[in-house]
């Protein structure tokens, strides 16, 4: 299937999930994350959930990261340049939804792309090769291409992988893992 077809399919599949199901599945994903060999790093980038899009709830992962005393980094999107600015998430950071309902930091200490060790990546779909389909704006591909070469890229999904995404581009950055409620897929 093409990215466009997959976006439509997985938006519909997510839309059919109840908020209770999303909460249960998100907790299972967070529990599976504990099985990954990633907990010796310091700087973890995580997306803040867009509840209206029925994304994986990252609150559970945030609790794990805080419990392990890790540096948590969140981003604010610049829609003109299609880039993201990252800040260290502390108690003093104010989070506010933008016009697209994306929760974003309004202040905080800046963090450079190359300081990040692990990135939890939002997605709509992914394939068995680690290619992902996002919302189509290219924010994460641009961001991940600026990170250090050994940054660990982890997708979070309620669903199993597709066999193939037909229209992958050379600029698309592949995942290293994808965590689902049932398993961890390694690429």
From TrEMBL:
Which reactions appear under catalytic activity for this entry? (6S)-5-formyl-5,6,7,8-tetrahydrofolate + ATP = (6R)-5,10-methenyltetrahydrofolate + ADP + phosphate
Transmembrane domains' residue ranges: none
Q: Where does the chain bind ATP? A: 3-7, 132-140
What EC number is given for this enzyme?
6.3.3.2
Keyword list (alphabetical) reads:
ATP-binding, Ligase, Magnesium, Metal-binding, Nucleotide-binding
- The domain of life for this entry's organism is Bacteria
Q: Which InterPro entries match?
A: FTHF_cligase, FTHF_cligase-like_sf, NagB/RpiA_transferase-like
Q: What class of enzyme is it?
A: ligase
Instruction: State its cofactor.
Output: Mg(2+)
Q: Name one Pfam family in it.
A: 5-FTHF_cyc-lig
Q: Which GO terms describe its molecular function?
A: 5-formyltetrahydrofolate cyclo-ligase activity; ATP binding; metal ion binding
Q: Which GO terms describe its biological process?
A: folic acid-containing compound biosynthetic process; tetrahydrofolate interconversion
- UniProt-annotated binding residues for substrate: 50, 55
Q: Which family does it belong to?
A: Belongs to the 5-formyltetrahydrofolate cyclo-ligase family.
Could you tell me which NCBIfam families the record lists for this protein?
MTHFS_bact (TIGR02727)
Which PANTHER family does this chain map to? 5-FORMYLTETRAHYDROFOLATE CYCLO-LIGASE, ATPASE INHIBITOR/5-FORMYLTETRAHYDROFOLATE CYCLO-LIGASE
Protein name according to UniProt? 5-formyltetrahydrofolate cyclo-ligase
Source species: Paenimyroides ummariense
């Amino acid at each position: 299937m093409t990215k466009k077809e997959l976006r439509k399919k997985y938006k519909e599949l997510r839309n059919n999930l109840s908020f209770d199901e999303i909460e249960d599945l998100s907790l299972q994903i967070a529990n599976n994350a504990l099985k990954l060999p990633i907990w010796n790093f310091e700087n973890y980038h995580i997306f803040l959930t867009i509840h209206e899009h029925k994304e994986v709830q990252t609150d559970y992962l945030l609790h794990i990261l805080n419990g392990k005393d890790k540096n948590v980094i969140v981003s604010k999107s610049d829609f003109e340049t299609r880039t993201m600015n990252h800040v260290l998430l502390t108690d003093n950071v104010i989070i506010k939804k933008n016009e697209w309902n994306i929760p974003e930091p309004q202040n905080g200490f800046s963090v450079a792309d190359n300081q990040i060790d692990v990135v939890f990546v939002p997605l709509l779909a992914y394939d068995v090769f680690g290619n992902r389909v996002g919302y189509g704006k290219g924010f994460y591909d641009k961001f991940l291409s600026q990170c250090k070469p050994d940054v660990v890229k982890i997708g979070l999904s309620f669903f199993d992988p597709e066999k193939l995404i037909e229209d992958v581009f050379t600029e698309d950055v592949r995942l290293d893992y994808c965590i689902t409620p049932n398993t961890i897929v390694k690429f």
